């Protein structure tokens, strides 16, 4: 079923390093056979080793076009409830929650504006692409798609038991972040949980892509914890996964 999922991230994120390796490795072998100067061989060897290792990390560790796993099993531990995915994109985080919590229902919300095609490429309408992934994962029966702005959520107060947001809020400036987190607090029920996942500037990301994926400000756990507490949340847990910082917060 994985082959039917198309999250829309560019091919070079998963396979671009193979292009570099396809040039670097043969040149290194040729240079070794012809006894090229040591300095040139050192550069080629480093490039061949990096591109090969970075491909393994990109494809099998980061795996942005593969299924995602919940970073913490404490999120929605009851296994049931109504969940909001703020900035659902092509559905990777929605599928992550629905597969891990088979008794939950979810609203996948995204603005579906011009930035959507910039991130995920053009093709069918954003809603159609999101629904196609939900169907491919077999979770479309428990999901509803809704267009809306994370900064002004189109929902009544206390409408959700839990919220997830993955790699979406961190694209915004400080005021946008404040608005999103305040809205998350507004639409959560008392005791509801908020799982926030943002891009983490860690060694996995720096080794594999350098600055290429740092397309949003990278902020540390204390910064995000402060923003959550300002909105009245209690931060229960935070941690890291490859290229990811996550925080689990609860509304009192």
Structure characterization notes:
By secondary structure, the protein is of the alpha/beta class. It folds into 2 domains: 52 residues; 171 residues, 3-Layer(aba) Sandwich (Rossmann fold), CATH 3.40.50.150. It contains 8 helices and 7 strands, in the order H-H-E-H-E-H-H-E-E-H-E-H-H-E-E. Strand 1, helix 3 and strand 2 form a beta-alpha-beta unit. It starts with 10 loop residues before the first helix and ends with a strand.
Question: Which secondary structure elements does this structure contain, and how are they paired or packed?
Answer:
Blueprint: H1 11-34, H2 38-62, E1 80-86, H3 92-100, E2 103-110, H4 114-120, H5 126-136, E3 143-147, E4 160-166, H6 174-187, E5 188-199, H7 203-209, H8 221-230, E6 234-241, E7 244-250
Parallel strand pairs: 1-2, 1-4, 2-3, 4-5
Antiparallel strand pairs: 5-7, 6-7
Helix pairs in contact: 1-2, 2-7
Note the main sheet: 7 strands, mixed
What percentage of residues falls in helices of 4 or more residues?
A: 40-55%
The CATH class designation of the largest domain is: Alpha Beta
The structural domain count equals: 2
Number of helices in the DSSP assignment: 8
* Architecture (CATH level 2) name of the largest domain: 3-Layer(aba) Sandwich
CATH homologous superfamily descriptor of the largest domain: Vaccinia Virus protein VP39
According to CATH, what is the topology of the largest domain? Rossmann fold
Strand order of the largest sheet: 3-2-1-4-5-7-6
Order of helices and strands: HHEHEHHEEHEHHEE
Shape: elongated
How many angstroms separate the termini?
A: 39 Å
Overall average residue pLDDT = 91
Percent of residues in beta strands? Answer: 15-25%
C-alpha Rg (nearest Å): 20 Å
Number of strands: 7
Would you tell me the structural class of the helices and strands?
A: alpha/beta
Low-confidence region ranges: none
């Amino acid at each position: 079923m994985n082959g039917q999922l198309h999250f829309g991230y560019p091919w070079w994120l998963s396979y671009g390093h193979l292009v570099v390796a396809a040039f670097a490795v043969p040149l290194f072998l040729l240079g070794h056979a012809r006894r090229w100067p040591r300095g040139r061989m050192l550069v080629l060897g480093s490039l061949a080793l990096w591109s090969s290792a970075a491909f393994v990390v990109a494809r099998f560790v980061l795996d942005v076009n593969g299924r995602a796993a919940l970073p913490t099993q404490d999120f929605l531990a009851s296994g049931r409830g109504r969940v909001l995915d703020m900035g659902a994109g092509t559905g990777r985080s929605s599928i992550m929650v629905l597969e891990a919590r088979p008794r939950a229902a979810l609203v996948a919300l995204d603005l579906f504006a011009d930035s959507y095609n910039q991130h995920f490429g053009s093709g069918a309408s954003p809603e159609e692409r999101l629904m196609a992934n939900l169907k491919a994962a077999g979770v479309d029966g428990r999901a509803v798609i809704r267009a809306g702005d994370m900064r002004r959520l189109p929902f009544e107060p206390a409408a959700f038991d839990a919220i997830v947001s993955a790699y979406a809020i961190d694209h915004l400036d400080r005021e946008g972040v404040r608005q999103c987190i305040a809205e998350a607090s507004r639409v959560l029920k008392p005791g509801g949980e908020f799982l926030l996942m943002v891009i983490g500037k860690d060694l996995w990301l720096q080794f594999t892509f350098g600055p290429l994926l740092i397309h949003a400000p990278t902020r540390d756990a204390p910064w995000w914890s402060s923003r959550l507490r300002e909105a009245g949340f209690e931060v229960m847990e935070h941690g890291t996964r490859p290229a990811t910082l996550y925080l689990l917060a609860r509304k009192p």
